[in-house]
């Protein structure tokens, strides 16, 4: 089954290197051209529908791409961004300065992280795994797109690829384009380190 992991459109916060968390943000003006380019990139995948996180930014991204591809888009609560609590809006430098030990853990062992007033990353990964398992069928012929914010995007990639959790941090900071994957299902477990 083909799955397109689609990051949210660019925001001013993202451009400044700020963690989005669950803050309601508008797409930056240049996101319109980004959506158009992504629509063309995704056209050959013949997506049947797009699912998106239940926030305005994800909705705007999904609806723009879905309109270009002439397919339906639907919100899924389980795709909500990891709740970063007090870290939302911080830059990496600010996080290092205020929460040095937590920053090291986020880079080295992200599934053991629990931001202050936020969500345990391991709980978020389990929530996401359950959601993906319902949507991704081993013999599915339907191609789908999933629009998510940075940390959820990174966790979805980790859950589907079954790779090392340490890549969650790197992916959350670097992924700026849709990623096409061929999935035969969702691995049974999520590592805790």
Fold and architecture overview:
It is a single chain. It contains eight helices and five strands; from the N terminus they run βααβαβαααβααβ. The protein has one domain (2-182): 3-Layer(aba) Sandwich (Rossmann fold), CATH 3.40.50. The mean pLDDT is 91. With 193 residues, the chain is α/β, with parallel strands linked by helices.
Give the topology:
Blueprint: E1 2-7, H1 12-15, H2 31-42, E2 47-52, H3 56-69, E3 73-75, H4 92-98, H5 100-108, H6 121-135, E4 143-148, H7 150-161, H8 167-174, E5 179-182
Parallel strand pairs: 1-4, 2-3, 2-4
Antiparallel strand pairs: 1-5
Helix pairs in contact: 2-3, 4-5, 6-7, 7-8
Sum up the structure in keywords.
single chain; 193 residues; alpha/beta; Rossmann fold; five-stranded mixed beta sheet
Number of beta strands:
5
Q: What is the CATH architecture assignment?
A: 3-Layer(aba) Sandwich
Helicity, as a percent range: 40-55%
Shape type: globular
Kindly summarize this structure in a few lines.
The protein is of the alpha/beta class and 193 residues long.
């Amino acid at each position: 089954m083909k799955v397109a992991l689609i990051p949210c459109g660019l925001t001013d916060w993202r451009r400044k290197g700020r963690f989005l968390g669950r803050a309601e943000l508008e797409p930056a003006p240049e996101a319109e051209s980004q959506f158009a380019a992504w629509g063309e990139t995704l056209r050959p995948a013949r997506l049947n529908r797009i699912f998106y996180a239940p926030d305005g930014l994800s909705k705007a991204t999904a609806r723009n791409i879905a309109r270009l591809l002439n397919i339906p888009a639907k919100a899924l609560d389980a795709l909500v961004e990891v709740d970063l609590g007090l870290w939302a809006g911080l830059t990496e430098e600010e996080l290092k300065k205020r929460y040095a030990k937590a920053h090291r853990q986020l880079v080295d062992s992200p599934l053991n992280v629990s931001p202050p007033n936020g969500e345990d990353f391991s709980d978020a990964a389990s929530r996401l795994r359950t959601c993906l398992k319902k949507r991704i069928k081993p013999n599915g012929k339907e191609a789908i797109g999933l629009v998510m914010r940075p940390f959820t995007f990174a966790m979805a990639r980790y859950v589907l690829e079954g790779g090392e959790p340490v890549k969650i941090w790197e992916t959350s900071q670097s992924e700026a384009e849709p990623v096409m994957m061929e999935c035969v299902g969702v691995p049974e477990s999520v590592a805790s380190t």
